[in-house]
Amino acid sequence: MLKRIQRANKRDSRHLRFYFKMKHFLALCLLVSYVAAEDLRSILRSPKETLKLYSNFKAQEHLAFGASEDRMRFRMFRSNAEFVADANEEGSSAEFALNFFSAMTADEKRQYLGLNITGHLPNAPVLSSTPLQTPPAKKLWTNEEAVTEVKDQGKCGSCWTFGAVGGLESRYKAKSGVLRNFAEQEYLDCVYEGLNRDGCNGGWPDDCYTYSQHNGGRLAATKDYHYGPVDVKCEASKKPNAMVAYKITGFENVRAGESANIAALATGSLAVAFEVTNYFQQYSKGIIKDTTCSGRPNHAVTAVGYTENFVLVKNSWGTGWGDQGFVKFARHYDNCGLFDYSSYPTLKSTGKQDTTPADTATPYRPSEDDVVCEDVSHYCRPDHCQYEDLVEYCRKTCNKCGDDSDDGGDGDCPSGTVMCDDGVCRHEHMC
Ligand SMILES: *[C@@H]1O[C@H](CO)[C@@H](O)[C@H](O)[C@H]1NC(C)=O
Description:
With 431 residues, the protein is of the alpha+beta class.
Protein backbone atom coordinates (compact mmCIF):
# COMPACT_ATOMS: atom_id res chain seq x y z
CA MET A 1 0.00 0.00 0.00
CA LEU A 2 2.84 2.35 0.86
CA LYS A 3 4.41 1.81 -2.59
CA ARG A 4 1.19 2.70 -4.30
CA ILE A 5 0.79 5.84 -2.28
CA GLN A 6 4.39 6.77 -2.89
CA ARG A 7 3.95 6.42 -6.63
CA ALA A 8 0.68 8.25 -6.77
CA ASN A 9 1.70 11.03 -4.48
CA LYS A 10 5.36 11.61 -5.14
CA ARG A 11 5.17 15.35 -5.10
CA ASP A 12 3.33 15.82 -1.89
CA SER A 13 5.91 15.13 0.76
CA ARG A 14 3.63 16.26 3.53
CA HIS A 15 1.16 13.52 2.72
CA LEU A 16 3.96 11.02 2.34
CA ARG A 17 5.54 11.69 5.68
CA PHE A 18 2.17 11.15 7.25
CA TYR A 19 1.74 7.77 5.61
CA PHE A 20 5.10 6.63 6.87
CA LYS A 21 4.08 7.63 10.34
CA MET A 22 0.62 6.14 10.06
CA LYS A 23 1.92 2.84 8.78
CA HIS A 24 4.03 2.58 11.88
CA PHE A 25 1.33 3.88 14.08
CA LEU A 26 -1.35 1.48 12.88
CA ALA A 27 0.92 -1.54 13.21
CA LEU A 28 1.64 -0.58 16.80
CA CYS A 29 -1.87 0.21 17.85
CA LEU A 30 -2.83 -3.37 17.26
CA LEU A 31 -0.43 -4.47 19.96
CA VAL A 32 -1.62 -2.13 22.63
CA SER A 33 -4.24 -4.22 24.36
CA TYR A 34 -1.40 -6.02 26.08
CA VAL A 35 -2.77 -5.89 29.58
CA ALA A 36 -5.97 -7.63 30.57
CA ALA A 37 -8.47 -5.50 32.45
CA GLU A 38 -8.13 -7.62 35.62
CA ASP A 39 -4.33 -7.34 35.62
CA LEU A 40 -4.20 -3.59 35.36
CA ARG A 41 -5.35 -2.97 38.94
CA SER A 42 -2.74 -5.28 40.42
CA ILE A 43 0.01 -3.75 38.27
CA LEU A 44 -0.97 -0.30 39.52
CA ARG A 45 -0.53 -1.42 43.13
CA SER A 46 3.19 -1.87 42.46
CA PRO A 47 5.20 1.24 41.46
CA LYS A 48 7.82 -0.99 39.87
CA GLU A 49 5.27 -2.89 37.76
CA THR A 50 3.62 0.39 36.78
CA LEU A 51 6.92 1.73 35.49
CA LYS A 52 7.46 -1.47 33.56
CA LEU A 53 4.02 -1.16 32.01
CA TYR A 54 4.83 2.42 31.07
CA SER A 55 8.10 1.32 29.42
CA ASN A 56 6.29 -1.35 27.41
CA PHE A 57 3.67 1.18 26.45
CA LYS A 58 6.31 3.63 25.20
CA ALA A 59 8.15 0.91 23.29
CA GLN A 60 4.98 -0.23 21.58
CA GLU A 61 3.87 3.29 20.77
CA HIS A 62 7.41 4.26 19.71
CA LEU A 63 7.44 7.13 22.16
CA ALA A 64 10.63 8.60 23.58
CA PHE A 65 10.80 11.64 25.84
CA GLY A 66 13.50 13.74 27.51
CA ALA A 67 13.82 13.27 31.28
CA SER A 68 11.50 16.03 32.50
CA GLU A 69 8.85 15.37 29.86
CA ASP A 70 9.08 11.68 30.66
CA ARG A 71 8.14 12.36 34.28
CA MET A 72 5.17 14.39 33.16
CA ARG A 73 4.09 11.70 30.64
CA PHE A 74 4.46 8.98 33.25
CA ARG A 75 2.18 10.84 35.64
CA MET A 76 -0.42 11.20 32.89
CA PHE A 77 -0.06 7.57 31.92
CA ARG A 78 -0.49 6.41 35.51
CA SER A 79 -3.53 8.56 36.08
CA ASN A 80 -5.05 7.36 32.78
CA ALA A 81 -4.32 3.75 33.74
CA GLU A 82 -6.03 4.33 37.08
CA PHE A 83 -8.96 5.85 35.26
CA VAL A 84 -9.18 2.77 33.03
CA ALA A 85 -8.98 0.40 36.01
CA ASP A 86 -11.70 2.37 37.84
CA ALA A 87 -13.91 2.50 34.76
CA ASN A 88 -13.67 -1.26 34.37
CA GLU A 89 -14.75 -1.75 37.97
CA GLU A 90 -17.86 0.36 37.63
CA GLY A 91 -19.74 -2.64 36.29
CA SER A 92 -21.00 -0.92 33.17
CA SER A 93 -21.62 -2.81 29.96
CA ALA A 94 -18.53 -1.31 28.26
CA GLU A 95 -14.86 -2.18 28.71
CA PHE A 96 -12.06 0.31 28.72
CA ALA A 97 -8.38 -0.13 27.88
CA LEU A 98 -5.08 1.69 27.57
CA ASN A 99 -4.51 3.00 24.06
CA PHE A 100 -2.60 5.69 22.18
CA PHE A 101 -4.49 8.41 24.07
CA SER A 102 -3.19 7.20 27.42
CA ALA A 103 -0.13 9.45 27.69
CA MET A 104 -1.51 12.53 25.95
CA THR A 105 -2.32 15.93 27.36
CA ALA A 106 -5.89 17.22 27.06
CA ASP A 107 -4.76 19.55 24.26
CA GLU A 108 -3.22 16.67 22.34
CA LYS A 109 -6.36 14.57 22.75
CA ARG A 110 -8.43 17.43 21.34
CA GLN A 111 -6.47 17.31 18.07
CA TYR A 112 -8.25 14.05 17.24
CA LEU A 113 -11.67 15.69 17.33
CA GLY A 114 -12.70 18.66 15.19
CA LEU A 115 -16.39 19.43 15.40
CA ASN A 116 -16.88 23.20 15.38
CA ILE A 117 -20.34 23.55 16.83
CA THR A 118 -20.27 27.37 16.88
CA GLY A 119 -23.50 28.69 15.43
CA HIS A 120 -25.24 25.32 15.27
CA LEU A 121 -28.37 24.37 17.17
CA PRO A 122 -29.74 20.88 17.77
CA ASN A 123 -32.09 19.68 15.05
CA ALA A 124 -35.79 20.25 15.62
CA PRO A 125 -37.38 17.45 17.63
CA VAL A 126 -39.97 15.05 16.31
CA LEU A 127 -43.44 16.53 16.39
CA SER A 128 -46.15 14.24 17.61
CA SER A 129 -47.76 14.72 14.19
CA THR A 130 -44.59 13.62 12.30
CA PRO A 131 -45.40 10.26 10.77
CA LEU A 132 -42.49 7.88 11.33
CA GLN A 133 -42.30 4.59 9.51
CA THR A 134 -41.71 1.68 11.83
CA PRO A 135 -38.14 0.62 11.12
CA PRO A 136 -36.98 -3.01 11.22
CA ALA A 137 -35.81 -4.27 14.63
CA LYS A 138 -32.21 -4.13 13.46
CA LYS A 139 -30.12 -2.90 10.56
CA LEU A 140 -26.36 -3.27 10.38
CA TRP A 141 -24.87 -1.73 7.23
CA THR A 142 -21.55 -3.37 8.13
CA ASN A 143 -23.16 -6.74 7.48
CA GLU A 144 -24.25 -5.72 3.99
CA GLU A 145 -20.80 -4.80 2.65
CA ALA A 146 -21.97 -1.19 2.71
CA VAL A 147 -19.35 0.30 5.05
CA THR A 148 -15.77 1.01 3.96
CA GLU A 149 -12.76 0.12 6.06
CA VAL A 150 -12.09 2.15 9.19
CA LYS A 151 -10.08 5.28 8.36
CA ASP A 152 -7.76 7.39 10.47
CA GLN A 153 -7.96 11.17 10.70
CA GLY A 154 -4.60 11.37 12.48
CA LYS A 155 -3.63 14.49 14.38
CA CYS A 156 -6.04 16.81 12.54
CA GLY A 157 -9.46 18.01 13.66
CA SER A 158 -11.03 16.69 10.46
CA CYS A 159 -13.63 14.39 12.03
CA TRP A 160 -16.34 16.43 10.28
CA THR A 161 -15.09 15.24 6.85
CA PHE A 162 -15.08 11.59 8.00
CA GLY A 163 -18.55 11.88 9.49
CA ALA A 164 -19.85 13.37 6.23
CA VAL A 165 -18.15 10.87 3.91
CA GLY A 166 -19.31 7.97 6.09
CA GLY A 167 -22.86 9.31 5.88
CA LEU A 168 -22.55 9.20 2.09
CA GLU A 169 -20.81 5.87 1.45
CA SER A 170 -23.50 3.41 2.53
CA ARG A 171 -26.22 5.51 0.89
CA TYR A 172 -24.36 5.58 -2.40
CA LYS A 173 -23.88 1.81 -2.10
CA ALA A 174 -27.56 1.20 -1.27
CA LYS A 175 -28.66 3.17 -4.33
CA SER A 176 -25.99 2.37 -6.92
CA GLY A 177 -24.99 -1.10 -5.74
CA VAL A 178 -21.32 -0.05 -5.59
CA LEU A 179 -19.36 0.63 -2.42
CA ARG A 180 -17.00 3.53 -3.09
CA ASN A 181 -14.36 4.87 -0.74
CA PHE A 182 -14.85 8.63 -1.09
CA ALA A 183 -12.23 11.29 -0.38
CA GLU A 184 -12.26 13.15 2.93
CA GLN A 185 -9.31 15.15 1.62
CA GLU A 186 -11.43 16.92 -1.00
CA TYR A 187 -13.69 18.22 1.76
CA LEU A 188 -10.76 19.03 4.03
CA ASP A 189 -8.97 21.04 1.32
CA CYS A 190 -11.93 22.59 -0.46
CA VAL A 191 -14.84 23.23 1.91
CA TYR A 192 -13.51 26.34 3.64
CA GLU A 193 -11.14 27.26 0.79
CA GLY A 194 -10.64 30.99 0.68
CA LEU A 195 -12.24 31.60 4.06
CA ASN A 196 -8.89 31.78 5.82
CA ARG A 197 -9.87 28.76 7.91
CA ASP A 198 -7.87 25.61 8.53
CA GLY A 199 -10.12 22.56 8.32
CA CYS A 200 -7.87 20.77 10.82
CA ASN A 201 -9.18 23.22 13.42
CA GLY A 202 -12.68 21.89 13.00
CA GLY A 203 -15.72 22.08 10.76
CA TRP A 204 -19.29 20.92 10.26
CA PRO A 205 -20.39 17.84 8.24
CA ASP A 206 -23.32 19.51 6.45
CA ASP A 207 -20.92 22.07 4.95
CA CYS A 208 -19.39 19.15 3.04
CA TYR A 209 -22.69 18.20 1.45
CA THR A 210 -23.37 21.86 0.61
CA TYR A 211 -19.94 22.14 -1.02
CA SER A 212 -20.71 19.09 -3.22
CA GLN A 213 -24.13 20.50 -4.07
CA HIS A 214 -22.52 23.73 -5.27
CA ASN A 215 -19.95 21.82 -7.30
CA GLY A 216 -22.13 19.68 -9.52
CA GLY A 217 -22.83 17.10 -6.81
CA ARG A 218 -19.26 15.83 -7.00
CA LEU A 219 -16.75 14.14 -4.73
CA ALA A 220 -13.49 12.39 -5.61
CA ALA A 221 -12.52 8.85 -4.60
CA THR A 222 -9.86 8.32 -1.95
CA LYS A 223 -7.73 6.40 -4.44
CA ASP A 224 -7.49 9.57 -6.55
CA TYR A 225 -7.36 12.13 -3.75
CA HIS A 226 -5.33 10.74 -0.85
CA TYR A 227 -5.76 11.71 2.76
CA GLY A 228 -3.11 13.43 4.84
CA PRO A 229 -3.83 15.17 8.17
CA VAL A 230 -3.24 18.65 6.72
CA ASP A 231 -5.53 21.14 5.02
CA VAL A 232 -3.77 22.12 1.79
CA LYS A 233 -4.78 23.76 -1.49
CA CYS A 234 -8.00 22.46 -3.08
CA GLU A 235 -7.22 20.13 -5.99
CA ALA A 236 -10.76 19.11 -6.85
CA SER A 237 -10.46 20.38 -10.44
CA LYS A 238 -7.63 17.89 -11.06
CA LYS A 239 -9.38 14.90 -9.53
CA PRO A 240 -12.02 12.80 -11.27
CA ASN A 241 -15.53 12.89 -9.86
CA ALA A 242 -16.35 9.53 -8.28
CA MET A 243 -20.07 10.26 -7.84
CA VAL A 244 -20.86 8.45 -11.08
CA ALA A 245 -24.37 7.06 -10.65
CA TYR A 246 -25.70 9.62 -8.18
CA LYS A 247 -24.89 13.21 -7.34
CA ILE A 248 -25.19 15.04 -4.05
CA THR A 249 -27.99 17.59 -4.11
CA GLY A 250 -27.71 18.80 -0.51
CA PHE A 251 -28.55 17.28 2.85
CA GLU A 252 -31.40 16.42 5.15
CA ASN A 253 -31.31 17.03 8.89
CA VAL A 254 -32.74 14.17 10.92
CA ARG A 255 -35.20 15.24 13.56
CA ALA A 256 -33.65 15.12 17.02
CA GLY A 257 -34.32 12.09 19.19
CA GLU A 258 -33.69 8.40 19.00
CA SER A 259 -36.82 7.29 17.15
CA ALA A 260 -36.23 9.61 14.19
CA ASN A 261 -32.54 8.67 14.10
CA ILE A 262 -33.30 4.96 14.07
CA ALA A 263 -35.86 5.45 11.29
CA ALA A 264 -33.28 7.41 9.23
CA LEU A 265 -30.55 4.87 9.98
CA ALA A 266 -32.73 2.13 8.55
CA THR A 267 -32.43 3.88 5.17
CA GLY A 268 -28.65 4.43 5.29
CA SER A 269 -25.72 5.69 7.39
CA LEU A 270 -25.83 9.09 9.11
CA ALA A 271 -23.32 11.80 9.91
CA VAL A 272 -23.77 12.21 13.68
CA ALA A 273 -22.21 14.42 16.35
CA PHE A 274 -21.70 13.84 20.06
CA GLU A 275 -19.40 14.70 22.94
CA VAL A 276 -16.19 12.75 23.46
CA THR A 277 -15.20 12.21 27.11
CA ASN A 278 -12.31 10.41 28.78
CA TYR A 279 -14.47 7.30 28.92
CA PHE A 280 -15.03 7.42 25.20
CA GLN A 281 -11.35 7.87 24.41
CA GLN A 282 -10.41 4.80 26.46
CA TYR A 283 -13.36 2.68 25.24
CA SER A 284 -12.40 -0.78 24.01
CA LYS A 285 -15.60 -2.81 23.62
CA GLY A 286 -19.13 -3.50 24.79
CA ILE A 287 -21.97 -0.98 24.96
CA ILE A 288 -21.08 2.48 26.23
CA LYS A 289 -23.51 4.58 28.19
CA ASP A 290 -21.65 7.72 29.10
CA THR A 291 -23.06 9.76 31.97
CA THR A 292 -20.21 12.27 32.17
CA CYS A 293 -20.98 14.61 29.27
CA SER A 294 -21.09 18.35 29.80
CA GLY A 295 -23.43 19.02 26.88
CA ARG A 296 -21.23 20.36 24.09
CA PRO A 297 -20.69 17.97 21.16
CA ASN A 298 -17.09 18.02 19.90
CA HIS A 299 -16.78 15.07 17.52
CA ALA A 300 -18.43 13.92 14.30
CA VAL A 301 -18.63 10.26 13.31
CA THR A 302 -20.85 7.97 11.25
CA ALA A 303 -23.73 5.89 12.58
CA VAL A 304 -23.75 2.67 10.56
CA GLY A 305 -26.47 0.54 12.13
CA TYR A 306 -28.47 -0.50 15.15
CA THR A 307 -29.89 -3.48 16.99
CA GLU A 308 -32.40 -3.51 19.82
CA ASN A 309 -29.55 -2.89 22.26
CA PHE A 310 -27.10 -0.57 20.57
CA VAL A 311 -26.43 2.00 17.86
CA LEU A 312 -23.27 1.11 15.94
CA VAL A 313 -20.90 3.96 15.18
CA LYS A 314 -17.80 4.00 12.97
CA ASN A 315 -15.05 6.23 14.29
CA SER A 316 -12.04 7.67 12.40
CA TRP A 317 -9.23 6.76 14.79
CA GLY A 318 -7.97 3.64 13.01
CA THR A 319 -8.72 0.01 13.87
CA GLY A 320 -6.44 0.16 16.92
CA TRP A 321 -9.01 2.21 18.83
CA GLY A 322 -12.21 0.79 20.36
CA ASP A 323 -13.84 -2.34 18.97
CA GLN A 324 -11.74 -2.60 15.78
CA GLY A 325 -12.44 1.08 15.20
CA PHE A 326 -16.18 0.90 15.98
CA VAL A 327 -18.21 1.69 19.10
CA LYS A 328 -21.62 0.61 20.36
CA PHE A 329 -23.79 3.23 22.04
CA ALA A 330 -26.65 2.11 24.31
CA ARG A 331 -30.17 2.38 22.91
CA HIS A 332 -32.85 4.20 24.89
CA TYR A 333 -30.35 6.70 26.17
CA ASP A 334 -29.31 10.19 25.13
CA ASN A 335 -25.61 9.33 24.64
CA CYS A 336 -24.00 12.74 24.85
CA GLY A 337 -26.07 14.41 22.15
CA LEU A 338 -25.73 11.56 19.64
CA PHE A 339 -29.25 11.98 18.28
CA ASP A 340 -29.39 15.78 18.13
CA TYR A 341 -27.32 16.84 15.11
CA SER A 342 -27.63 14.01 12.59
CA SER A 343 -27.81 14.48 8.84
CA TYR A 344 -27.34 12.65 5.57
CA PRO A 345 -26.75 13.70 1.96
CA THR A 346 -29.61 13.75 -0.52
CA LEU A 347 -28.77 11.95 -3.77
CA LYS A 348 -30.14 12.22 -7.29
CA SER A 349 -29.61 9.73 -10.10
CA THR A 350 -27.39 10.86 -12.98
CA GLY A 351 -28.90 8.21 -15.24
CA LYS A 352 -25.46 6.58 -15.53
CA GLN A 353 -24.34 3.26 -14.17
CA ASP A 354 -21.29 3.01 -11.94
CA THR A 355 -19.15 0.22 -13.35
CA THR A 356 -16.14 0.95 -11.12
CA PRO A 357 -15.05 -2.11 -9.13
CA ALA A 358 -16.23 -1.86 -5.53
CA ASP A 359 -13.79 -0.67 -2.87
CA THR A 360 -13.00 -2.83 0.15
CA ALA A 361 -15.72 -3.16 2.78
CA THR A 362 -14.84 -3.40 6.46
CA PRO A 363 -14.51 -7.02 7.62
CA TYR A 364 -15.94 -5.98 11.02
CA ARG A 365 -19.12 -7.77 12.11
CA PRO A 366 -20.38 -6.52 15.46
CA SER A 367 -21.15 -9.13 18.06
CA GLU A 368 -24.84 -8.82 18.75
CA ASP A 369 -24.71 -10.56 22.12
CA ASP A 370 -23.86 -7.43 24.08
CA VAL A 371 -26.69 -6.12 26.19
CA VAL A 372 -26.90 -3.22 28.58
CA CYS A 373 -27.11 -4.73 32.03
CA GLU A 374 -27.45 -1.58 34.07
CA ASP A 375 -30.61 -0.35 35.64
CA VAL A 376 -31.20 3.32 35.08
CA SER A 377 -32.46 3.71 38.62
CA HIS A 378 -31.03 2.30 41.83
CA TYR A 379 -34.58 1.88 43.04
CA CYS A 380 -35.55 -0.83 40.56
CA ARG A 381 -37.34 -3.72 42.24
CA PRO A 382 -38.71 -6.91 40.65
CA ASP A 383 -42.28 -5.88 41.31
CA HIS A 384 -41.72 -2.85 39.08
CA CYS A 385 -41.43 -5.17 36.11
CA GLN A 386 -45.16 -5.54 35.74
CA TYR A 387 -45.32 -1.91 34.60
CA GLU A 388 -44.59 -1.55 30.90
CA ASP A 389 -42.92 1.86 31.29
CA LEU A 390 -40.59 0.74 34.03
CA VAL A 391 -39.23 -2.34 32.28
CA GLU A 392 -36.94 -0.19 30.16
CA TYR A 393 -35.54 1.46 33.26
CA CYS A 394 -35.13 -1.75 35.20
CA ARG A 395 -33.73 -4.05 32.55
CA LYS A 396 -31.29 -5.77 34.83
CA THR A 397 -33.73 -6.27 37.61
CA CYS A 398 -36.32 -7.42 35.13
CA ASN A 399 -33.85 -9.95 33.87
CA LYS A 400 -33.38 -8.78 30.36
CA CYS A 401 -29.70 -9.46 31.06
CA GLY A 402 -30.32 -12.81 32.70
CA ASP A 403 -27.16 -14.87 33.13
CA ASP A 404 -26.01 -17.57 30.75
CA SER A 405 -27.62 -20.32 32.75
CA ASP A 406 -30.92 -19.35 31.13
CA ASP A 407 -32.87 -22.55 30.81
CA GLY A 408 -35.28 -21.00 28.35
CA GLY A 409 -38.16 -21.24 30.81
CA ASP A 410 -39.41 -18.59 33.18
CA GLY A 411 -36.82 -19.53 35.77
CA ASP A 412 -34.99 -16.24 35.34
CA CYS A 413 -38.05 -14.10 35.84
CA PRO A 414 -38.98 -12.73 39.23
CA SER A 415 -41.68 -14.81 40.86
CA GLY A 416 -45.14 -14.01 39.63
CA THR A 417 -43.88 -12.97 36.18
CA VAL A 418 -43.21 -14.87 32.99
CA MET A 419 -40.85 -14.39 30.07
CA CYS A 420 -42.85 -12.72 27.29
CA ASP A 421 -42.06 -13.36 23.62
CA ASP A 422 -39.89 -10.23 23.51
CA GLY A 423 -37.67 -11.59 26.26
CA VAL A 424 -38.92 -9.28 28.99
CA CYS A 425 -40.40 -10.60 32.26
CA ARG A 426 -43.88 -9.33 33.00
CA HIS A 427 -47.07 -10.51 34.58
CA GLU A 428 -48.63 -12.91 32.14
CA HIS A 429 -51.50 -10.65 31.19
CA MET A 430 -49.02 -7.86 30.28
CA CYS A 431 -47.27 -9.90 27.54
C1 LIG B 1 -15.97 27.82 13.85
O1 LIG B 1 -17.10 28.25 13.11
C2 LIG B 1 -17.31 29.63 13.14
C3 LIG B 1 -18.64 29.91 12.46
O2 LIG B 1 -18.70 29.36 11.18
C4 LIG B 1 -16.13 30.35 12.49
O3 LIG B 1 -16.31 31.75 12.51
C5 LIG B 1 -14.86 29.97 13.25
O4 LIG B 1 -13.74 30.54 12.59
C6 LIG B 1 -14.71 28.48 13.31
N1 LIG B 1 -13.60 28.12 14.18
C7 LIG B 1 -12.50 27.52 13.70
C8 LIG B 1 -11.46 27.21 14.71
O5 LIG B 1 -12.35 27.23 12.53
